[in-house]
Amino acid sequence: QVQVVESGGGLVQAGGSLRLSCTASGRTFSNYGMAWFRQALGKEREFVAAAGWSGDVTRYADSVKGRFTISRAYAQNTVYLRMDSLKPEDTAVYYCAVGNSIAVVVGAYDYWGQGTQVTVSL
Q1: What is the full DSSP assignment across 44-97?
Q2: What is the C-alpha to C-alpha distance for residues 73 and 90, in angstroms, rounded to an integer?
Q3: Which residues neighbour 42 within 8 Å (Cβ) at sequence distance 6 or greater?
Q4: Do 80 and 20 contact (CB within 8 A), yes or no?
């Protein structure tokens, strides 16, 4: 069975930084995409960032572009999300997803982690 595990969440003051990590295990992955979504309290889950097999293929939500950076360690089936200049509106549970594309919709992904909480205070 496939396991997807996120880590790195926590409490940070506005303007600060965090780095999230996600590792997928349980099978051999090839030509797959990895993505980050987030869900704030009372809101729908939304796309944050994604990276394909090639490190040159990435995409970001407009709300985080220029502040967040996604990267991958392909041999380790690991994806990172560097979050800088954090804002209170970034507060959410962040989820890692694995699939065959890097689409912005949740239905495009096959495997999900349990999420890691990110809280940004003023």
Answers
A1: --EEEEEE-SSTT-EEE-TTTTTTEEEEEEGGGTEEEEEE-S--GGG-EEEEEE
A2: 25
A3: none
A4: yes
**Structure token digits, residue 47:** 């796309």
pLDDT in tens, 48-101: 999 987 767 899 999 999 999 999 988 889 999 999 999 999 999 999 999 988
CA 66 vs. chain centroid, Å, equals 15
Longest dimension (CA), the chain: 42
| H or E segment to which residue 112 belongs | strand 109-112
Q: Residue for token digits 């396991």?
A: 3
**Among 97, 61, 81, which Cα is nearest to 17's?**
81
For the chain, how many residues are written? 122
> Given the structure tokens 């999900």, which residue do they identify?
112
Q: Which two tokens stand for residue 10?
A: 């926590």
The pairing of strands 10-13 and 116-121 is parallel
Euclidean distance between CA atoms 112 and 3, whole angstroms = 8
